[in-house]
Amino acid sequence: MGIVEEAHNVKVLGSGEKTIVLGHGFGTDQSVWKHLVPYLVDEYRVVLYDNMGAGPTNPDYFDFNRYASLEGYAYDLLAILEELQINCCMYLGHSLSAMTGVVASIFRPDLFSKLILVSASPRFINTDDYYGGFELEDIEQLCRAMESNYKAWVSGFAPLVVGGDMDSVAVQEFSRTLFNMRPDIALSVFRTVFTFDLRHFLSRVTVPCHIIQSSMDMAMSVTVSEYLHRNLGGKSIVEIISTEGHLPHLSAPEATNPVLLRHISHDITDDVA
């Protein structure tokens, strides 16, 4: 195993001709894809990895400057593809990693046949002409809460983002992976995710994008997916699924998996581009 693979706990499953790479969002790790992977391994070569800063990674490797922007995560993704000698893949990313895939595809469009973007947002903070879902003060308040009592913050944040109460299996699972992060790293990643603005990148994306989002997501409204669709430089398609929460692949896999599998196996046709 190479240095990059080891650092990101890369796992390669299945032996299909086509490769699909799965990237997880903030607060989770590669285990978040456990409901989907069994449906992929018979047909695809599946690559799983942990973002630097996720619980299973070595916190000493987390560079606060490098990961203050999504370019750091995008370069990590490209390094993984290079080390595994992957010349072309489908990339399925959630939230933070969805936008990581967007940035990586601008740097190296030849490496991606398509991007499948789950709960993707180019900006979470509202402006005069854009509705991201949060005011800057909302984010600052959440950051202060993280700093003062991380455990209490997780207990409030997890059910809000996933949808449901603390007794739900999905909320407990998201809480577990949040608790696995070192609190100062979690705060840094949270701040990066909720304050970036990638809207200016979108027109440079030429890789086909499949945009998938819950109909009820407290972290972002469906207008964000429509904004992506309008502003991406290449072909794109939007599908809003009747699920609740920002992590539908974790909280409602029975509804989400068929949608993901359909977008993985079918390309965007000219009539819906």
UniProtKB/TrEMBL annotation:
<dbReference type="Pfam" id="PF12697">
    <property type="entry name" value="Abhydrolase_6"/>
</dbReference>
<comment type="similarity">
    <text>Belongs to the AB hydrolase superfamily.</text>
</comment>
<feature type="domain" description="AB hydrolase-1">
    <location>
        <begin position="20"/>
        <end position="257"/>
    </location>
</feature>
<keyword id="KW-0378">Hydrolase</keyword>
<dbReference type="GO" id="GO:0016787">
    <property type="term" value="F:hydrolase activity"/>
</dbReference>
<dbReference type="InterPro" id="IPR000073">
    <property type="entry name" value="AB_hydrolase_1"/>
</dbReference>
<protein>
    <recommendedName>
        <fullName>AB hydrolase-1 domain-containing protein</fullName>
    </recommendedName>
</protein>
<dbReference type="InterPro" id="IPR029058">
    <property type="entry name" value="AB_hydrolase_fold"/>
</dbReference>
